[in-house]
Amino acid sequence: MAIIITDECINCGACEPECPNTAIYDVADDW
Prior knowledge:
Elements: no helix or strand
């Protein structure tokens, strides 16, 4: 299933538990 994160995203984090393959995650501050 393809999911597109659009400009309407407010970074609420509600999508993280719904992602079946942990493709959505917070990037470390080191980047």
